[in-house]
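no rush on this but wanted to send it before i forget. theres a chain ive been looking at and ive put its sequence and its fold in token form underneath. i want to understand how the tokens follow from the sequence so walk me through it. thanks a lot i owe you, the record is right below:
>
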Amino acid sequence: MKVVVLGAGLMGKEIARDLVASEQVEKVFLADVSVDPANEFVATLNTNKVEVVQLDADCDDDLRKVISKGQVVINALFYTFNERVVRAAIDVEVHSVDLGGHIGGVTEKILALNEDAVKKGVTVIPDLGVAPGMINILTGYGASKLDSVDSIKLFVGGIPTEPKPPLNYTQVFSLDGVFDHYTEPSKVISKGTLSEVESLTGIEPIYFDEFGVLEAFYTSGGISTLHYTFPNVKTLEYKTIRYKGHAEKFKLFADLGFLDKTNTVTVGGNEVSVREVTREVLKKELELGKEADAVLLRVIISGEKSEEQITYEYEMVVRKDLERNVTAMARSTANTISVVAQMIGKGLITDRGVFTPETVVPGREFIAEMAKRGVIIKETSHRSTMIVKW
């Protein structure tokens, strides 16, 4: 199996690390606009499996040339490149997966390429991070055990294990991505009706062992394609997990316009983006550095099976790998997309076209593969007999 990884940032590096560990992966092409940092990372892997190649992702010809080196391409670039990468992959008949970007209709545009993918005989699966991604796979797995699904509730968050005021938060992926999730509306299904709610609202307490009582609130993008896959559920909602008080503080930022992409001010005769200034200030304050982070996840799917009400619950707590200095978010995200890419390469996923994670990734095998990588997802269930009155 030859795999191309686009982007040698935090996620791209950890994806490459996981691919190298697979006996079935013959070659990894790690592509980035800056080759020196990528080469420095590859030198630490002690392997001859990885070749660093230079990539200008803004150039379609360059994308096609690099992507054509493998059978599967893993896109770890910023989500604004997702559609362009998929189109290039389809052109050169290479299977494609990406880390997601449901904000702004990116994923919908990729789903619309299904007919092109079928014609070229390739598999495309977008939205393969943690949220969206892992939560979609687990939702699909839980739903497959039910005759009908009534409720889907999703909770995910990346947090520092030792929070520091005033924000009790550290940056574990792009702050621009965080700002987008906090400012775009969140889709929900409530009482069977699809609607949108304002992000950073709907705050509720949520408890995890060793972390105590945290808070969860609506943010955008999390339900991804689930409202298409499960349009008839009574409840569908996604909430982000943080330490208590986080949502209120960032809601203030949002309300004052600090996170608005279009908001500018004139300083010293120069027009300045307020959001860019906010991002750079917070980047310094929220840098993870050598501090430890954790990713918390809870997926709750309820429905009916053989006249019983059954709830399946999936829970995960992943901590930073201190020995290798790999963040919990990177462990969760990079392993998810690497596992699915290898499922395609191995022939475990054979359907051709564009698919959502919840409809095509085998949940049982996914959970088993993640466990091999130290990412443990626990499943519990409980049931109650339905009483039918005549």
Observations:
- The mean pLDDT is 93.
